[in-house]
Specification:
Number of helices of chain B: 13
Order of helices and strands of chain A: HHHHHHH
Number of strands of chain A: 0
Radius of gyration of chain B: 19 Å
Number of domains of chain B: 1
CATH architecture of chain B: 3-Layer(aba) Sandwich
Distance between the termini of chain B: 48 Å
Structural class of chain B: alpha/beta
CATH superfamily of chain A: Phosphate transport system protein phou homolog 2, domain 2
CATH topology of chain A: Methane Monooxygenase Hydroxylase, Chain G, domain 1
Helix content of chain A: over 70%
CATH class of chain B: Alpha Beta
Order of helices and strands of chain B: HHHEEEHEEHEHHHHEHEHEEHH
Radius of gyration of chain A: 19 Å
Oligomer: heterodimer
CATH superfamily of chain B: P-loop containing nucleotide triphosphate hydrolases
Strand content of chain A: under 5%
Number of domains of chain A: 1
Structural class of chain A: mainly alpha
Shape of chain B: globular
Distance between the termini of chain A: 39 Å
Helix content of chain B: 25-40%
Strand order of the largest sheet of chain B: 6-7-8-3-9-10
Chain lengths: 225, 273
């Protein structure tokens, strides 16, 4: 393969890193909008959806172009496959951020206060997890990628806990159900972001080792962080 | 040379050799610490590998890495080079190819070769295929053998109505398939192919690659190629050689997705030098 191809590959990798940064920013702003019921901030997040969609298409097109023109193998092939999949996960993460922002727009700041603390804690964990997975990709760091699996387990547990609390509260006091549904939706989207971050971490392991660990119990979620 | 016709891996001589005991039972050609040279120049250094039966094994590597020398050694084509010398052992189904007991002519009946450039005889298509069986005393139905060989080489449908035309009238790709039919006519055990598509256009190359895929069911194929994508497409196993040494030998899928050696990784991704 030519130096020209190596340069194109490196440019694409940096572009994927920038896409990751853009999506992280969207998640952060969506969470802040939810925390403060900030409609202006929520609208800003929603407006960035088209930017992410366009970038996703351009990155995917470039991956296909490089595969068709250069028929890469080995680490080059693994990198292009990883970028293709991570790109898709990042776009889905952006969609989740938009869902959160849309719920945040009409969230009553005073309602559901009891749940805000739980949501903020979950949002913080999810953002750190997403950032960790993206950094693992940038550095091709398997250990950092594996750490995200344990975080995902904790986020799943926290999500289940929030569901139970909301159901219990709804049974006791039916008022404020609309806000509870918003909170539930935000929690659901945070949980989905964590799943996408797990996918990214799995792709980092594929990138480094060539192993597909998805659905493989022996190599997937690790409990030691 | 009845032993060449009736050999098996349980040959009494080979049972005593340690490597034979440990080699896979379906090994057809086995190199044991093989070093090949021309005068004082060492072209292949201390190579050990087992070529499995009914598989396509590709040998890749940069120019001058020794891959063609290794391939040519497998049916003693290097014998014609006066300064060629051999150390170590090269076994065909347990028989040492370079032992005095091995007749190179008999060996080439079992291990056929297809070269880089198509080299048909200046004779008819029919005679190109029938020639070697005829001089080797084939007593069966020659017409049937020619037809079967051309069919196995995926050429029959294109030439069945002009069998007595000169082979030179065929296209390059057809000539190469005729050479494969010529090799097949001797009903060999192994087919060695030295860059068989390097002189062909993409369509003819695709035909040869499809043919290699079909030949795998009947013959053991060893393919030397500069074209890494071709090795990836057609072979089951790939050996990577560099400066006369065997760097890595593994399943083709592994070699082109996650090779074990950095040097292989650098070569297949073009980061050499």
């Amino acid at each position: 393969m030519t130096a020209h191809f190596v340069n194109l590959l490196e440019t694409l990798r940096r572009r994927a890193d920038r896409m990751a940064g853009l999506v992280e920013d969207m998640v952060q702003e969506a969470c802040e909008a939810a925390a403060g019921a900030d409609e202006t901030l929520a609208r800003r997040v929603i407006k960035r959806d088209s930017d992410v969609d366009a970038e996703e298409v351009e990155i995917e097109s470039e991956v296909i172009r490089l595969m068709a023109l250069y028929q890469p193998v080995g680490s080059d092939l693994r990198l292009l496959c990883a970028i293709l999949k991570i790109n898709n996960d990042l776009e889905r993460v952006a969609d989740c951020a938009i869902n959160i922002a849309q719920r945040a727009r009409h969230l009553d700041p005073d309602a559901g206060t009891r749940h805000h603390a739980a949501i903020l804690e979950m949002a913080d964990a999810v953002q750190r997890m997403l950032r960790g997975a993206n950094q693992a990709f940038a550095a091709e760091d398997i250990d950092a990628a594996r750490k995200t699996f344990a975080v995902d387990d904790r986020i799943d547990a926290r999500y289940e806990q929030i569901i139970q609390e909301i159901v219990a509260q709804g049974a006791a006091t039916p008022e404020g159900m609309a806000d509870r549904l918003d909170i539930l939706s935000i929690a659901k989207n945070l949980e989905r972001i964590a799943d996408h971050a797990t996918n990214i971490a799995e792709d980092v392991i594929f990138l480094s080792t060539g192993k597909i660990i998805r659905h493989a119990d022996d190599d997937a979620p690790q409990t030691n962080e | 040379m009845a032993e060449l016709r009736n050999m098996s891996v349980t040959d009494s001589r080979t049972r005593s050799a340690t490597r034979r005991v440990t080699a896979a039972p379906d090994t057809v050609i086995s190199a044991e610490n093989l070093t090949l040279g021309y005068g004082s120049f060492v072209a292949v250094r201390d190579v050990s590998l087992d070529i499995p039966d009914r598989k396509v094994t590709a040998i890749i590597g940069p120019s001058g890495c020794g891959k063609s020398t290794l391939l040519r050694a497998m049916n003693r084509m290097n014998d014609v080079v006066p300064s060629a010398n051999v150390q170590g052992r090269l076994l065909y189904r347990g028989l040492d190819i370079y032992s005095p007991r091995c007749d190179s002519v008999e060996l080439r009946l079992k291990i056929g070769m297809v070269f880089q450039r198509p080299n048909p005889f200046p004779k008819s298509i029919y005679k190109n295929v029938a020639w070697a069986p005829k001089i080797n005393g084939y007593r069966g139905d020659m017409g049937e053998l020619v037809e079967r060989s051309l069919q196995h080489a995926a050429l029959w449908d294109e030439v069945k109505d002009k069998l007595h035309q000169c082979a030179y009238a065929l296209s390059g790709g057809q000539q190469q398939r005729l050479c494969i039919a010529r090799a097949i006519a001797l009903q060999p055990d192994v087919l060695l192919m030295d860059e068989p598509c390097s002189a062909l256009d993409p369509i003819a190359t695709a035909r040869i690659e499809d043919l290699i895929d079909e030949l795998e069911n009947r013959y053991t194929v060893v393919l030397v190629t500069h074209n890494m994508q071709q090795a990836a497409r057609v072979s089951d196993l790939t050996a990577f050689m560099y400066m006369g040494e065997l760097v890595e030998f593994d399943a083709t899928e592994t070699m082109f997705t996650k090779p074990g050696r950095q040097r292989t990784q650098d070569y297949i991704t073009g980061r050499f030098g």
